Amino acid sequence: xxxxxxxxxxxxxxAACADALSARGLRVTVVERDAVGSGATAAGMGHLVAMDDxxxxxxxxxxxxxxxxxxxDGQGQRHEYSRCGTIWVAADxxxxxxxxxxxxxxxxxxLECDVIGAQELYRLEPNLRPHLAGGLLVQGDxxxxxxxxxxxxxxxxxxxxxxxxxxxxxxxEDGAVVLADGSxxxxxxxxxxxxxxxxxxxxxxxxxxxxGHVMITDxxxxxxxxxxxxxxxxxxxxxxxxxxxxxxxxxRPTGQVLIGxxxxxxxxxxxxxxxxxARMLARAVDYTPALAGLNVLRxxxxxxxxxxxxxxxxxxxxxxxNVWLATGHEGLGITTSLATAELLAAQxxxxxxxxxxxxxxxxxxxxxxxxxx
Length: 373
Ligand SMILES: Cc1cc2nc3c(=O)[nH]c(=O)nc-3n(C[C@H](O)[C@H](O)[C@H](O)COP(=O)(O)OP(=O)(O)OC[C@H]3O[C@@H](n4cnc5c(N)ncnc54)[C@H](O)[C@@H]3O)c2cc1C
Description:
This protein has 373 residues and is an alpha/beta fold. It has two domains: 5-44 and 146-207 and 309-364, FAD/NAD(P)-binding domain (3-Layer(bba) Sandwich); 84-140 and 208-306, D-Amino Acid Oxidase, Chain A, domain 2 (2-Layer Sandwich), CATH 3.30.9.10. The chain has helices spanning 12-23, 39-43, 55-72, 93-108, 118-124, 146-159, 198-201, 233-238, 274-287, 333-349; strands at residues 5-8, 28-32, 47-48, 86-90, 113-117, 134-138, 142-143, 163-166, 169-173, 176-179, 184-186, 189-192, 208-219, 227-230, 243-251, 256-265, 296-306, 313-316, 323-327. The longest helix has 18 residues, at 55-72. The chain is globular and about 65 Å long. Bound molecules: flavin-adenine dinucleotide. Flavin-adenine dinucleotide (FAD) binds next to helix 1, strand 2, helix 2, strand 13 and strand 17.
């Protein structure tokens, strides 16, 4: 019997959608070309973070954080979850003012956070460089190991009868997909959750790849205790051209330190670039000088799927019949995966969603990828 829904891609988004749709009683098939939880999901830092650059981003990220708390409740270890919190580090008084403004927005949204002065900053994170102004501590943020979470979500769907087909989708048809071996799989509806590779199946989508590098050190338990991000990260994350790096360190539950982050447009070459690594390390050492004495074990890269307005595409694809989109999550797709799946499932199968779906509908863009309004 053909499935109700065929999902292309078993990254965190496809896996979360499979979980949510199967929970609503739909028959789901997931097609994956590589491995469950590969693509950007394997490359991501796994920071679960409330982002407040606009109301829609804050609504999606903070609602998803609530869903993550329910998902990891009692089984944090399976996801390698840690509620480490985030400190947005303010280098000077101007950035501390920005931290205060951020705190007002986040508190108004019910998020637990505190502006901290320099003394508290160094008590919490003694390895930060001297003469910083303070920061904003957001207590509810955390981290997971994304490929593991993707596998757990997909396993839940499979336990409800969903199936996983290994293969590459090379073409979309109305109510079917064609695989690289020439076979066709029929389904009532198709969900595109293939990250940046959605573009090879639907080249007109308003998506651009944004490359990122991540490095990981040997084990140094306690070197840092919170995810540390410079307030300037927001500027870097929103650049729409060129290359940028920002200070972004994460304490893995293993005691390792993840070092981010870089952003580059107009390349899909996954090679790790020594020049970008050098820039990221210089930035990280500038904020945490003792990092210079740690061993970096490995560097890897991934491609974020970026939309023109920085919000994901969640809903019907107006250019293709019976096709739905769940992509375009840029650097926030691990965080926003669960809310994405809830919004998509509510649209496809009915039932409630915790937030308004309208800001994320693909119909906000015209056929040329330009935003309306
Ligand atoms: C360096 C970096 C750091 C990041 N850090 C964070 C972070 O700290 N916090 C956060 O929230 N987000 C982070 N992100 C963003 C996050 O990783 C992505 O938004 C998220 O993983 C996107 O998931 P996805 O399932 O849409 O895409 P992907 O993870 O790319 O998954 C797509 C899947 O589809 C499969 N696929 C593709 N094409 C086909 C096809 N034709 N047929 C069959 N299968 C196909 C792929 O093999 C893959 O498994 C980061 C991203 C990068 C690159």
